[in-house]
Amino acid sequence: MQGLSREAVRRVYRFYAPVYDFVFGLLLDSGRAALARAIDPAAQRVLEVGVGTGLALKRYPALAQVVGVDLSEEMLLRALPRARRLRGARAVDLVCADAEHLPFPDASFDAITLPYVLSVTPNPQALLRELRRVCRPGGQILILNHFRGAQGMGGLERLLARFAHRVGFDSQLDMDSTLGGHDWTREQVRPVNLFGLSRLVLLRNA
Ligand SMILES: C[S@@+](CC[C@H](N)C(=O)[O-])C[C@H]1O[C@@H](n2cnc3c(N)ncnc32)[C@H](O)[C@@H]1O
After folding, report:
1. Beta-strand (E) ranges in the chain?
2. Cβ(170) to ligand 1 under 6 A?
3. What residues make up the domain containing 72?
4. pLDDT at residue 41 is higher than 80
């Protein structure tokens, strides 16, 4: 989101961390489930960007090695016990890092997920470029986000827009201009969550 610094993101999620699961856990969970179901079952190396408190971790393919990255230490601290509980079932590593400058070599991952992050990151275009770099050619990039223009949601969107900026959330992100201009194929877009307020976008890295 333009004008939002990394420090502001950390500050916002330091505040949200203790209540995040309560407020956004169940509310946004059907979107997380749809995203996890859309991952290629054969994907072995999965990166979740903006892993937060780790709500999606249990849903990833059982044989995958999962890496979760987040800017906020307070959110990651809450993801840690979830990751530990899963260790028997799948390998999970958590890394505190800025996803606009990832500490991984090119083509490190088969699938990259981005649940509810694009509207709250300082520079979405820098983030998308970085995801393409660490995703292998032909790998999947799965984006779950609110984009403006959800069908029949004009009133709710206007309401959201009035306070969203104050909590570091860009409710006006336009899907075509945000996702256009990158060398990937858009394989599927579908509405998810209550009232179809979020969209799940499946991309195939060129
Ligand atoms: C709305 S939460 C989503 C958390 C989780 N993915 C979920 O499904 O609930 C957004 C998360 O993205 C993280 N984030 C935002 N920009 C980031 C960046 N550039 N690098 C890493 N994490 C970022 C925030 O710290 C926060 O934990």
Report:
1. 45-49, 65-70, 91-96, 109-115, 135-145, 184-192, 198-205
2. no
3. 6-205
4. yes
